[in-house]
């Protein structure tokens, strides 16, 4: 497939900030109890459905991938940015990290028991989101679970500076109902959602959405 412009600019921006981004994220999860609770819920429902392979799509430096591994998931990370993948491999050599696009995943149909997109859909233009959610559905096995983390709102913000570098990133804020609609259109069923207020280091509410692909677990 022809690579959209936003994919190239997103890759370039995260390649630029990879090292500083990883340093900034260190230890952040420990101060976010609701985020950890949703990740634990995701790990629990995947394991309850007989476990199996899981992928974090848009894994960045691998912080969340490693956390879910510590919760007992057989998980790998996939990211658009080769520099992010290199940082993740250096920090977590015991785990598998590969390059890939969420619009065209190099994964077999129905090969995963869990898909996590932790703030990784936020740079995707609205018209491309149905393609991305269709890929999530394609790679999930029946009975598998999808977890999405996102910024709650209805706006587009552009970042020209970030993590000490010049970048070019569009950030799309989404309503929980829109995320639920995108999942529903693929045939997935909502399991639960959470919206929490912004932490001091955030600019708005944060959302978490869990869905299941129907079928035998």
Automatic annotation (TrEMBL):
Domain of life: Bacteria
Keywords, alphabetical: Methyltransferase, Transferase
Pfam families: Methyltransf_25
PANTHER family in the record: METHYLTRANSFERASE
A molecular function GO annotation: methyltransferase activity
Protein name listed in UniProt: Methyltransferase domain-containing protein
Methyltransferase domain sequence ranges: 54-144
One annotated GO biological process: methylation
Organism annotation: Solihabitans fulvus
